[in-house]
Amino acid sequence: MTAVQPHLDGTIPDPKIPAVRRRAEDYETWVAEVRPAFIAAAATGRTFTTFEVADGSDLPEPPDHHQWGRLMTLLREEGYIRTAGWACSPRPTAHHSGVRTWKGTAAARRAAA
Fold first, then answer.
1. Where would you tag: which of 29, 58, 100, 113 has the fewest CB atoms within 10 A of its CB?
2. What pTM did the predictor assign?
3. Percent of the chain surpassing pLDDT 70
4. How many CA atoms lie within 13 A of 44 on its CB side?
């Protein structure tokens, strides 16, 4: 049994249950599911990290975690996004390591209009 620190008013806090994200079965199915969320993020013109979009849209994990990078390369090659710089990762398990930031291109904004 783990110890639980009560709040100052004596109430017991709700347990923190880590979010369990589902994992896609294959790469093609996963890309088809997550692609619209990234194209929509690119159309906003704001700077974002991959995790921010994935977490905000509750997207599934790819079959292999390296495929996040392949997806972003694919979107960049198709002209939807461009690199915008670097930031500390908002992913809780990344311990604020550096990650690339992305920004939608003018073509992505036009496609959304």
1. 113
2. 0.75
3. 90
4. 10
